[in-house]
Specification:
Elements (H helix, E strand, L loop, with lengths): L29 E2 L36 E6 L5 E4 H5 L3 E5 L4 E3 L11 E6 L5 E5 H4 L5 E6 L2 E2 L9 E3 L12 E7 L6 H4 L21
Parallel strand pairs: 1-4, 2-11
Antiparallel strand pairs: 2-3, 4-5, 5-8, 6-7, 6-11, 8-9, 8-10
Length: 210
Amino acid sequence: MSFLDGLIKDPKYQNTDPRKPEEVSDPGIIISPDTRRENRVPPGQARTKKWPVLDAHGAPPIDLATWTFEVDGLVDKPLQFSLDEFMELPPLKVYSDFHCVTRWLASVKPEAKFVLALAYDYGWTTNVPIDYFLKEDSLFAFLHDGAPIPPEHGGPVRLIIPQLYAWKSAKWVKGVRFLAEDQPGFWEEGGYHMRGNPWTSGDGERFRWS
């Protein structure tokens, strides 16, 4: 342990190497495939030992009593959940950045090829290809290491897309919209990549011109 490690007060600060997938003993936990890579850090990236707070505008004020999550667009039947209803959905556990999470079920029309995640963050959105959105380790998370996700990290509920760059994992989500055509979100309008795969050649898909 270095001298600087002793100065860190963040309870999520990691003083050791991340667990290896084979060290996860619970057979019911979904293992994100990126954790099985020989080098788990994408090209041009560096591991951080803390849980950084990154966002466009800061945590928005959210009234948990009136919080809702909506599913619309190219679905057979739009859905809406209160926070209590959302928490009652069948939970899953994933070994990636976030562990205790949940899924919801909706009948998505076959022409849906993209998902637009909508957030309480002052109209913030991000777009995700539907094949990444539906991957086994892509989830809506409300717990991290057994504790509620705090507002600065996107609570009460945030999207987690482990196989894409973190800006695709929308904080403070209030719904998703299924689309036939891709639609740029907040950062994508500013030039960020429409897909955002960190594992492509070079430094990954950071920008549209990369």
